[in-house]
Amino acid sequence: MAARFKHLAIMAAAGAGTIALIGQSVAPRAEALAMQAQAITAQEKRQGAEVHPKLLEEFGGAYQVPQTSYVVQVGKGIAVQSGLGNARDDFTVTLLNSPVNNAFAIPGGYVYVTRQLMALMNDEAELAGVLGHEVGHVAARHSEKRQKAAQRNSIIGLLGQIGAAVLLGDGAAGQIGQQIFGTGSQLLTLKYSRKQEEEADDLGVRYLSQAGYDPQALSSMLASLAAQQAIDVRSQGGDARSVPEWASTHPDPARRVSRAATVAQRFSGSTRNRDVFLSRLDGLLYGDDPKQGVVQGRQFLHPELGLKFAVPQGFAMQNGTSAVTINGQSAQAQFTLGQYSGDLSRYVDQAFAGLGSSNQRINYGQMQRTTVNGIPAAYATARVNANRQLVDVTVFAYAFANNRAYHFVALTPAGRADAFAPMFQSVQRLAGAEAAQIRPRRVRVVTVARGDTVQRLAARMAYDDLKVERFLALNGLSGNAALAPGQKVKLVTY
């Protein structure tokens, strides 16, 4: 969380896509789609250019590091195989500074991959395969069909059990849902159909082969992702973060591995470029960027802003560029900042005003003033009707030094606003000594020495739990893998 949170309702309109669940049969239409690919239109170029800067803001911004030019080179090389453009410069490829495992593409020739997902890859062909799949969605114009579906069924899962009743329409709750949580990819409930996913996978494999890569690369990448997803699920208690975005919105990558491998048998190609990829990967930031705050267990700590808070048991956090999103089965919240003039009551009022529509203001109850861990605070709750379901919306704000203020916006079922009471009371200043201990993790590529074992190398991983499992998933290795002297492997260290 590095800047003021801006409400984004962009991914559904842009048709951005992430890899999703596929079936077990080969989609024959993919071959026809590859032969009939249509060039990017002027309208798609305008649409992509409008959405691109908003996506950068939502996903941590473009990551300008030595690895960036390499990712751009590989991405353009695979994207041009799609027929969407005849020149590499028809595409804009971006490495995102995000700790979320994600990749997507939008109409207009814009292709994205996060540094976190790149770190999970083990060769250049896997990078090309991931980006090829996403370009395949755009080449098949899947986003147009999904956008039409969104217009017919604009439902966002805001509150778990009652989420299906919260429609993004003209009602107050719909406005709140859209403006607090947007329809960005992190909470987008719409998915591509199984048929569309099969087509995108088949196209991605085809693009790999056309570029000379090993077409099995998409399958091996999916296997690593499945292993990482299992680790994230197991470590929920120790690292209260939702499962990787690439998996959470489109679950079960394990079921896709065998199908992608079967499809790849129809194609040729052998290039993997493992050594080149690992040399470029070395030193890449892994996990949270301390400049944007970090998630540790159920705590969020921001050394630059000098604050921290904790979420209740059973809730997961997702840290974004400008807000922290808190998700639970029956409630959700976001923590962000706003313009502060020194009047905390006015600050809360402005936060509610920002949640309403231009012609419908949210009426909240009595403003309450309090102190939380020595920090002046104010809060209020509004009850709104969401399609015959009552929802409580709470704004809880805190005044810090240097004329700064931050606040939670929380949505809960009516009468359940106290579900976040422990979180509201947990906000406190982050001491300098504690802030100084927050260090970034990085990917380091090391050469296996004689006598090195999986266990010995895994012990160097910068984690307190599941070290062996993390090492195996990071390197795409099976549980009985044997290491050979001279082999290059990845570690995550401080």
Automatic annotation (TrEMBL):
Domain LysM: 444-491
Record GO terms (molecular function): metal ion binding; metalloendopeptidase activity
Gene3D superfamilies listed in its UniProt record: LysM domain, Metalloproteases ('zincins'), catalytic domain
The protein's required cofactors: Zn(2+)
Record keywords, A-Z: Hydrolase, Metal-binding, Metalloprotease, Protease, Zinc
Tagged with keyword Iron: no
GO biological process, one term: proteolysis involved in protein catabolic process
PROSITE patterns cross-referenced by the UniProt entry: LYSM
GO cellular component, one term: membrane
Alphabetized Pfam families for the sequence: LysM, Peptidase_M48
Protease in keyword set: yes
Name listed for the protein in its UniProt record: LysM peptidoglycan-binding domain-containing protein
Originating organism: Sphingomonas ursincola
Taxonomic lineage: Bacteria, Pseudomonadati, Pseudomonadota, Alphaproteobacteria, Sphingomonadales
